[in-house]
Amino acid sequence: MANILAFESFDGGSHRQFRETLTLHSSHTWTWITRPPRGWKWRMAISAQEMVDDALRQGVQKPDCIFTTSLVDVAALRAALPRGWRDLPLVLYMHENQIAYPTSDERDASFACTNLQSILTSDLTIFNSKWNMDSFIDGICTFLKHSDTTLCNVEQRIRDNATVAWVPVEVPTENSRVLHNSNMSGRKKGACTTTIVWPHRWEHDKGPRKLLKLAREHTKTRNLRWIILGEQFEEAPESLRKFEDEFRDQIDHMGYVESKGEYWKWLHKADWVLSTAIHEFFGIAVVEALFAGCLPWLPEKLSYRELLPACARGLSPGVCNFDQESITTQIQNHLYMAQAPQASRRIDSLISDVL
To answer: Which terminus of the chain is more solvent-facing, meaning fewer CB atoms within 10 Å of its CB: N or C?
Structure first.
């Protein structure tokens, strides 16, 4: 068991959920230094020095390993550590990457370069999905081809020092039909409606325009009802406001649910989980819905290809020629390593290997 000093510069949403779940299930001892979940650009620019300063003020003793996540500049972090700490094993967990992250404005390429320097100065980089790793490598290599740099063998250097470990997803056994082997797909046999859950952040990268388009095309013809979950911000996308106005009579719930128990109850009421995301580096919300027994209405791209067995791809509520119970069982078996105990043990093992 190792003593790990860990840094999280954006402690909210999936980042916080990852931190709390991993710490709960890990066999290592964790000391986390965190910053609030706002101003991600500022966090990448200056949080390394801020957090090292915080750790020293708190009197943190020299750990066995340094662990950090992807909105931290690892090169700056190493430089900010006290003498005698800078050669400690350092593990980077990549929740996202800034070369493949879609944006509504022109993205400053320096953030992708910070990711690259972070990866090259870590002892081990763990990506949360193969899609995350491959999209970063493809994107950064294309970028470097058109840049004034002498860096070489970048793809091989990354792959030689990187691996994939899924995010630990907590499944509440008292609520889970899956883990008790109950009949998930048959829970609404005979029902005349099909309920769809869309469990994403209310932001442009989660594709709310596509959600509105699909709802207009299929709500009446397929007799759909809707559950809209996910975190909201000050300005919700206009397409979600239009969705609420147009389908008010077909919406069972629309809004953020803070209680995790209540959140899982809503997942259990749905037949299908829909994603319209433009990007998805892992997809905790979708994996939770799959563990809750929802069938996948997901794009055949992004991280979803690795989260689903081949038999579960390309499905939608209009496709009926498949064995729902068999599909659901195969999904649960495929996602075994995403369950919190197993996923945490894998990350623990990867950390131990660099000590």
So the answer is: N
